[in-house]
Amino acid sequence: MPKQSFKVCLCWRRVFKTRVVEPPLDIKNAFYSFSPSGMMTVDDLLRFLIEHQGQKNATKEDAQAIFDSLKHLNIFQRRGLHLEAFFRYLLGDLNLAHPPSKVHHDMNAPLSHYFLFTGHNSYLTGNQFSSASSVEPIKDALLRGVRVIELDLWPNSSGNDVNVCHGRTLTSSVGLQKCLEAIKENAFKASEYPVIITFEDHLNPNLQEKVAKMVTETFGDILYTSETENLEQFLSPESLKKKVLISTKPPKEYLEGNTQGEEISENEGGTVANECQSSSQWNPPEEGEHVPDEDEGKVVPEYRQLIAINARKLEGGLENWLSDDPKKVSRISLSEQKLESAAKTYGTKTVMFTQRNLLRVYPKRTRLDSSNYNPFVGWMHGAQMVAFNMQGHGKRLWIMQGMFRANGGCGYVKKPDFLLHRGPNDEVFDPNLPWDVKTIMTVKVYLGEGWHQDFHHTAFDRYSPPDFYTRIGVAGVPADKDVKQTATIEDEWLPVWDEEFKFQLRAPELAVLRIKILDYNTTGRHYFGGQVCLPVSELRTGIRAVPLHDKKGNKYKHARLLLSIKFEAP
């Protein structure tokens, strides 16, 4: 790519020379400090991995594998790596800041000790009011590692079958059977750890009986059912590998009428009906209203036996909702606003509740555009199921994807110890107290490359190469949130920034490193050039490559940054 021309008009083209980027000074210094002769041997590279990159368990085989990966390049020499080959290795996939890894957290603790990758209205393809319902978003979520799928169950227009849709909206419906089959087919392709299906049930007992038959016949042996209604402790993800679990309220609680909801009242006030609620046999009531049914005294034992995780009916106020019954565990669901209220008033009670029980948080009903909320309010209080709309994109969904890149991307991330600890007098972590700084993370942004291979040369500017800058920051607990920005490098596909930033971290276990590349535009509408979010707790130190992703979270083939990362005591 020696030159690039941009057509301005019929008689004028702008021609830009492209340069070859030299290794930054830090990389030159590192290279020559471990290979004074100017040629890095396998033994030299091994010392570099251990002493500079912090890979204490690196072996000679690891160093040899790096050598072997460079043999196809014309710059490789048998005697060892010279500076250019060393530079190419640093930018390659064997030197990632967060490489693909296996599951490494302890997976033998109860389910309540983990954050779960959780979807909200998993069947919707777009907004919450008028988009289509489909099995495709369910498949996509499972293939990305999502472990909790939500299905809203409604009668069809004839009242003789079950559909999945977002009630009291203009969204279309999809058959429950299709959804169950899609889940079965894709449940364990990305992760072998359990999939939990949360039902929002708007059905009469006859249709509940039909659901029970569908579920048992579809999933067969992979469906986990509990032998007892009252579990004293949840089972572990390890013991539930390749199992599907159903979580909803027991039928008798539906029959008693719904006073607080889960999400049955999330869309109250809507005036538009769809086929999911036009059944003459079962038209869902307004919040708090109880509509008699000819079969309402009938409790369907087959349906009850499906429920592996009881969703508790919410009665009384927040304090009562968060009460912990020592004889049994359960799940409750709170809207994002209810969680914020609980966090302000009952912070420690929420942490204590989530040590044994499951707390699911869902978006407020006004998020008709399928946007998302701040997940850290839930996570810092121990909420396991922070339910997100997965069908869009944006900062908060990228953060969610970044958090669940941890632990091999299996969809289960072990909670930090401070959220699980209880003192001798039952005292627990208080999220409302000041947080001490635990570590300082220093990130130096050296350079970026690969955009000219992943984008058309006029993708950013019709008349010149892009003007890239990097926004880099930390998403986490409120005291850790920080965003910094590099200078803008004009007219350059291979920008070199060489800028260093420091971040004070109080809860590094929950922190996510955020990176976003933008092409500066004088109109103020800066063009997207890639993003990535990575769990701080799993970042590798040293000089590292960071591949970038598109808005949907898919990795680009070539676009990436070169950074250095280090941690030090405050």
Automatic annotation (TrEMBL):
GO BP terms in the entry: lipid catabolic process; phosphatidylinositol-mediated signaling; release of sequestered calcium ion into cytosol; response to stress
Chain intervals with Basic and acidic residues compositional bias: 287-297
Catalytically driven reaction(s): a 1,2-diacyl-sn-glycero-3-phospho-(1D-myo-inositol-4,5-bisphosphate) + H2O = 1D-myo-inositol 1,4,5-trisphosphate + a 1,2-diacyl-sn-glycerol + H(+)
SMART domains xrefs: C2 (SM00239), PLCXc (SM00148), PLCYc (SM00149)
Membrane topology field: Peripheral membrane protein
A Pfam family of this chain: PI-PLC-Y
EC top class named in words: hydrolase
Main location: membrane
Name of the protein in its database record: Phosphoinositide phospholipase C
Top-level taxonomy: Eukaryota, Viridiplantae, Streptophyta, Embryophyta, Tracheophyta
